Amino acid sequence: MDLTLDSVLAEAISRLQLAARDRHHAMHTPVVATPDGDMRIMVLREASEGLSTLRFHTDLRSPKTALIGQGAPVGVLAYDPVDRVQLRMRGEGRIEQYGSIADAAWDRANASSRRCYLAGTGPSGVLAAPGSALPDHLLHRAPTLDETLPARENFCVLLVEVRSLDWLHLTHEGGTRARFTRSQANAPWQGAWLAP
Predict the structure, then answer these.
(1) What are the tens digits of pLDDT across the range 103-135?
(2) Residues 6+ apart with CB under 8 A from 146
(3) How would you classify residue 2: left for phi > 0, otherwise alpha for psi between -120 and 50, otherwise beta?
(4) So where are the chain's domains?
(5) Is domain 5-115+155-194 annotated with CATH 2.30.110.10?
């Protein structure tokens, strides 16, 4: 790759779009951080054109959904250990339970993916014993699509409008780093080279 700010940005966007489609990609499960300093691994479901939005699925009962609500800072960290590329993103997160994006995401989700939203206790809820909180009849099998319909009330999406992207390529020669920022999702990216 010819190292220009434009080529680095295009490569980062392409890498994230591929990661969203390929569950074996190193960046398919980045770390997502919320304003309270809590972090968790989440599955990247979509990286839109121009990297305006990242989409993740989550349970509406999770504490992070109330924290993020209709707008809160969110950080996303993805790393590819083979290519030694780190992407750090910051933006404005929001939760959408219903609407065109959430409805389409639910419709595309297979029964196995929907299963976790059938848990009787939401994320971070206290359990009497170790376990998944899934109904006993679904512990060892995937539900049918019809069986997942009650789970829709627990399903929502986390959308992160990306406002900054920090790209770092680690090398034995010291590495290369670039940062891209913008004021809002439809604004053009402004890039600069940084010392690693």
Answers:
(1) 999 999 999 999 999 999 999 999 999 988 998
(2) none
(3) beta
(4) 5-115+155-194
(5) yes
DSSP-assigned letters across all residues of the chain: ----HHHHHHHHHHHHHHHHH-TTSTTSS-EEE-TTS-EEE--EEEE-GGG-EEEEEEETTSHHHHHHTT-EEEEEEEEETTTTEEEEEEEEEEEESSSHHHHHHHHHS-HHHHGGGG-SS-TT---SSSS----GGGTTSPPPHHHHGGGGGGEEEEEEEEEEEEEEE--TT--EEEEEE-SSTTSPPEEEEE--
pTM here is 0.94
Query: Are 122 and 62 contacting, i.e. CB atoms less than 8 angstroms apart?
Result: yes
The C-alpha atoms of residue 167 and residue 10 are separated, in whole angstroms, by 11
| Single-letter code of the amino acid located at 177 | R
Tokens representing 113?
């993916």
